Automatic annotation (TrEMBL):
Organism expressing this protein natively: Sphingomonas lenta
Gene Ontology terms for molecular function: aldehyde dehydrogenase [NAD(P)+] activity; succinate-semialdehyde dehydrogenase (NAD+) activity
Pfam families: Aldedh
Domain Aldehyde dehydrogenase: 3-449
Protein name (record): NADP-dependent succinic semialdehyde dehydrogenase
Record bears the keyword Lyase: no
């Protein structure tokens, strides 16, 4: 059984049965059988299904949001926004997906070549708890549009959300087997990856989980997409609007109680404006109102579990032992996984802790002498997922966009995923891309078809 614990109260909320090995086998067989037909479905049928799923999510926004808040503690306001993003994601692929699948004609010796996109089969998704709907939709919408079918292994904390997604898809009229939730523990993933009927795997999670899944997929010679950890830099230069930058930095750091791979974690500020920015930023973090996530007067709810909260607090002790100074970042008394927002200063740049990801509502604050040093600090970690740069100097913008080692750079804004743009990282933040046309094509076979033709001319 899986037991859902409300992190705001620390009390059990609901229990969900775990699938037996035989039941998992039946799900895989069903996915394989469904794929044989779904791969041949017209693009219009796939688009129509995505629109109906979007409609179901939209109609159930309040229920879905309340469930996410109860299972992992995000504020009800942010949970509603997450559901709305899912609706947008389904509708984006419903509209743009058919065009992304159109064949491309090329000149070729003796005739014409066509590059055509074809599905590859059942895709296994191993997903985390921090965005329990959107993380799944990022894989599911392009999977359906591609003509593949999906198998989900969701986090133990959010089994209610996983079942709700399956319910939305079923109620939208999807053929049985197009999407199935597999209520299993992490130990069951290896057998699924090794199963010849499973074509590919996508994972969002920790470095350790990514390395394990990549190794398993490599042994099976299967395509894998990994979206792993991040310690995103948030760079502020003298030409920036400091009020806007400081306000955005607070928003970036406390969204989802700091439990987001792409929220700004390391604030790197030019020496000329360091003191002015630090004053604004620390004041903003001190003012963050923490409490019941259902109460919309609160800025931040609990972390996802007491265990996650305590792991962050233990990590902060190691920062202090290395010489850093902590303002805030304290455990709140009483029930639930609550802590205050915090800021770490004087973090030794060469220390081991400075290279780690802080998955909680505490920021590291660094001083940089110039753009060169800001880029050095930004890149001096094993991660390369996202980044945010604040400058009104066009040359600086281009320099940061070119030289920051990351899959994504946001200029004068908080980085956020969007259905239209590819999402992913480099270095130990993973490889491959979700979203956009690139996310649709990741798990497809780009097939070259050589066609005869006397003229060799390329058609429209």
């Amino acid at each position: 059984m899986f037991t859902s614990v409300n992190p705001a109260t620390g009390k059990p909320a609901a229990s969900y049965p775990k699938l037996t090995d035989a039941e998992v086998g039946q799900c895989v067989a069903r996915a394989s059988a469904t794929y044989a037909d779904w791969r041949l479905s017209p693009h219009t049928e796939r688009s129509d299904l995505l629109r109906r799923i979007a409609d179901r999510f939209e109609a159930e926004t309040d229920r879905l949001a309340a469930l996410a808040t109860a299972e992992m503690g995000k504020t009800l306001k942010s949970a509603r926004a997450e559901v709305a993003k899912c609706v947008a994601g389904f509708r984006y692929y419903a509209q743009a997906g058919p065009g992304m699948l159109a064949p491309v004609r090329l000149k070729a010796a003796g005739g014409v070549a066509e590059a055509r996109w074809h599905p590859i089969g059942p895709v296994l998704a191993v997903m985390p708890w921090n965005f329990p709907y959107w993380q799944v939709v990022r894989f599911l919408a392009p999977t359906i549009m591609a003509g593949n079918v999906g198998l989900l292994k969701h986090a133990s904390l959010t089994q209610g959300c996983a079942l709700a997604i399956e319910e939305m898809v079923r109620e939208a009229g999807a053929p049985e087997g197009v999407f199935q939730n597999l209520a299993i523990r992490a130990g069951g993933v290896a057998a699924l990856i090794a199963d010849d009927r499973v074509a590919a795997v996508t994972l969002t999670g920790s470095e350790e989980a990514g390395a394990t899944v990549a190794e398993q997929a490599g042994r099976a010679l299967k395509k894998v997409v990994l979206e792993l950890g991040g310690s995103d830099p948030f760079i502020v230069m003298p030409s920036a609007d400091l009020d806007a930058a400081a306000k955005a930095a607070v928003t970036a750091r406390i969204q989802n109680a700091g439990q987001s791979c792409i929220c700004g974690k390391r604030m790197i500020v030019h020496g000329q404006v360091y003191d002015a920015f630090a004053e604004r930023f620390v004041a903003g973090m001190r003012a963050v109102k923490v409490g019941d996530p259902v109460d919309e007067a609160n800025d931040m709810g609990p972390l996802s579990s007491v265990e996650q909260r305590d792991a962050v607090l233990e990590q902060l002790e190691r920062f202090k032992a290395a010489g850093a100074t902590l303002v805030g970042g304290e455990r709140l008394p009483g029930e639930g996984a609550y802590m205050t927002a915090g800021v770490l200063t004087d973090v030794p740049i060469e220390s081991e802790v400075a290279k780690e990801e802080l998955f909680g509502p505490v920021a590291m604050l660094f001083r940089a002498a110039d753009a060169d040093e800001a880029i050095h600090i930004a890149n001096d970690v094993p991660f390369g997922l996202g980044s945010s740069v604040w400058t009104n100097d066009e040359a600086e913008r281009e320099r940061f966009a070119r030289d920051i080692e990351a899959g994504m750079v946001a200029v004068n804004q908080v980085l956020a995923s969007t259905p239209e743009a590819p999402f992913g990282g480099v270095k130990r933040s993973g490889h491959g891309r979700e979203l956009g046309a690139q996310g649709l094509h990741e798990f497809m076979n780009l097939k070259t078809v050589m066609l005869p033709g006397a003229s060799g001319e390329v058609g429209d």
